[in-house]
Amino acid sequence: MMNESTWKTLLSRHLSQLLLIAALAGLMLYLSAASPFFWQWENLRNIADQSALMMILGVGMTLVIIAGGIDLSVGAIAALSGIIMALLLKSGTNSTAALTAGLVVGVLAGLSTGGLISRMRLNPFIVTLAMMSVIRGVALILSQGMPVYNFPAEVTWLGKGFAAGLPVPLWLALAVVLAGVLVLNTTRFGQYVQAIGGNEEALHRSGVQVRLYKTAIYALSGFCAALAGIIVAARLNTAEPTAGWMFELEAIAAVILGGTSMKGGVGSVAGTVIACLLLGVLRNGLTILSIHSYYQQLLIGLIILFAVVSSEIREGIS
Amino acid sequence: MNDEIESRIDQTAVKLFGIHKSFASVAALRGIDLSINYGQILALVGDNGAGKSTLIKILTGVHAPDRGIIEIEGKSYLRLNPALALNKGISAVYQDLALVDCLDVAGNLFLGREPTRGPFIDKKQMRSRSQELLQRLQLAIPSVTTPVKVLSGGQRQGIAIARTVNMGGKTIVFDEPTAAMGVKETKKVLETICKLRDQNHAIIVVSHNLHQVFAISDRVCVLQHGRIIGDLLVGQTSPEHIVRLMTGVEGAVADDE
After folding, report:
1. How close B78 comes to chain A (CA, Å)?
2. If chain A, 318 residues long, is cut into consecutive pieces of 10 residues, what is the mean pLDDT of each piece?
3. Which chain A residues touch B60 with a CB distance below 8 Å?
4. Which residues contact B54 (CB under 8 A, 6 or more apart)?
């Protein structure tokens, strides 16, 4: 059915993903040889939990970056959503309402960020940088800087429970990933996300309400961040105003490493997912090999640099 | 469809009355009266800054006029927006700005009007309709799933034109349609434009190339300092005459309104 040239296009289109999978396989082989702990159930669960969070954040960030933007506020949104949910639970609100409120707060934060960026044509980097500080500030003020803990069982289940043999966060991540893939590749919304990143002016001139779509993209990113924040709080049974520290950096790292172009227009959720797994395994490997967390910080930064440079080279070639 | 086309013959597509537009304190348009007809290629010429691009942006709803009326098929509007202009069949083929490089040919042809089935884009329908459209306009494009970034300048312009037609464009504005194109590609694009005229679209061409203007147009409008200082049928004028108007040697007549 497929001739040679089809294979070649497929190969070149997915080259970066294939390289990532190869790197992931190589890393796993190395770790299974280097550490007896790697394949242990408890360790795999750690990787799954870590990667699940990053995938949820990564899907939102993929859409934002494909649309030519960036969202530095996701870590702060994660913290605020966790705090809102926790404070409502403390005040006796039922779990469903508290969870919903946490998610709604994330969406509202995204809507205001997106609104500022699209209505006033502001630079997303500066707006989300400022929003990061605003939102983190609100989380600190509301919680008086103190952690809020002790949630009902149905809430902590979201962070440490199991369903059909897999951790609940992983199921949630899979749902978000699936939704992200479908939205990006099969809907008008997805088509416009790519078009905004590729040529916003052309889309505008086609009569599409670009501002609405742009705002919605940040709202989705806010939703993903809120979900991640709720999962973190649920897992630790504690909402901290300082939660989600550096989430934005890790999410951006995964997206760029996954082959999405910083210039916008081109990218894939699948690439981000593989990159999340790779980063999750890498971080875990550093931990089980007892390498100090200071080095992890250094490494994440180096990986982002590497990803940006190689993406620049890749675009130069094609 | 054919009945509709027949009924448009020699009808006025768009009429402008007393259009004024300023940016800050700079007056870009100072009272434009113009009628645009179906089945006619109208060339808009004038020096840089004469107001050509402001005029076509008002027509396509990108800018709102400060004063004046836009009449489309007998209905009056004080201002348009891009969606309304498109809806009324007015659309522009801009150089370079028209296409989204990262999307494929079909995605570009249907940008903003993707056929859907439920919540999803009906890609199958989108691709087969794209194929038909390209054949109808006799555009040679390798495949409707090719990303447009790999196409040549002429092919890209062909796609931009095809998209305009696909969006229901009846009044089609071309801004320097053959800029930076080779001789062969230019010829092909001009043929496509004439084909649209023969199918009774109203065509407006903004061009600096008077040779080209005289080769394809039916009517030439000369703009200067935001006013129309000449509105002539091609048979009644010559490139030399137009140049004299553009450079201001003639045309002071129109300045004393």
Report:
1. 19
2. 61 79 94 90 91 97 97 98 97 96 98 95 95 97 95 95 93 98 96 96 88 97 98 96 93 93 91 95 90 85 86 71
3. 205
4. B21, B23, B28, B29, B63, B226
Interface predicted TM-score (ipTM): 0.83
For residue B72, what is the enclosing H or E element?
strand B67-72
In degrees, to the nearest 5, what angle opens at C-alpha B143 toward C-alphas B137 and B145? Answer: 115
What is the domain count for chain A?
A: 1
- Which pTM was predicted? 0.83
| Owning domain of residue A162 | 49-317
Q: Which residues of A touch B123 (CB under 8 A)?
A: 186
| Amino acid (one-letter) located at B203 | I
8 Å CB contact between B27 and B227: no
The 3-state DSSP class for residue B204 equals strand
The answer as to whether A268 is a domain residue is yes
Residues of chain B numbered 144-163 and touching chain A (CB < 8 Å): none
Indicate whether A5 belongs to any domain: no
> Residue A196 corresponds to which tokens in the numbers above?
């905004």
Residue B26's CB is within 10 A of a number of other CB atoms, namely 9
For residue A8, being part of any structural domain is answered with no
- Spatial contact of A97 and A279, defined as CB atoms under 8 Å apart: no
For residue B96 the two structure tokens come to: 């370079």
CATH number at residue A126: 1.10.3470
CA nearest B85 in A: which residue?
Answer: A207
Question: Checking phi first, is residue A267 left (phi over 0); if not, alpha (psi -120 to 50) or beta?
Answer: left
Q: Show the domains of chain B with their CATH numbers.
A: 2-256 (3.40.50.300)
Is residue A309 situated within a structural domain? yes
- Residue A160 token pair: 């440490």
CA distance B132 to B128: 6
Q: Residue B26 in 3-state DSSP?
A: strand
E strands, B82-180, are 90-93, 116-117, 120-121, 171-175
Contact present, B45 and B222 (Cβ < 8 Å):
yes
Length of chain B: 257
